[in-house]
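U., I forgot to send this yesterday:
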Amino acid sequence: MNDSTHWIRTRQSRALIGAALAMSLALGAAFVAVNDPPPDAPAQHGAALSDAQAAAQVVDAAREIVATAGLREATGGYTFMSCSTGDEPPYQAALYMSFAVPQATSAQYLDGVASAMAADGWAVSAVVGEHFGHKLTLGGVISDISRNPEKPGFATMRLYGECRNIADHRDDNPAWTDVSL
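Result:
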């Protein structure tokens, strides 16, 4: 054995090479985990949506849900939210809606709303990091339904469209657009 290659067979060099390979593997896995969107995240691919198309995605879904589930006293509005960590494009339309629920049976009522949506084609999605409510998806739109703790006779539904609007909405005035549901 040559003295110049003997160092590679020592216990210390093998440990160093093993640690370097393990660190590379760990950093690669961390990169994939951090950059991989959650399974129910809005789609970020496909053709860009105009402002009207992005708004229609959530407004039309909200109107369909109001009709399908028979929601009472539904009111709402939408805005454009950045899908990035900053305030940069792409954006998604986000609609916040409230509707009346019977106080005594609000949890059962919301179960019925989710069931009506599921019967209309919405798929139940895992509710990540939440302990109550319902999350459903359909056609790239995510719906998140929960009781309104500040107003016991009402529930809140948030609808999020796809991240495909590339217009700059940082200076929208007004930021919220009310809609009739």
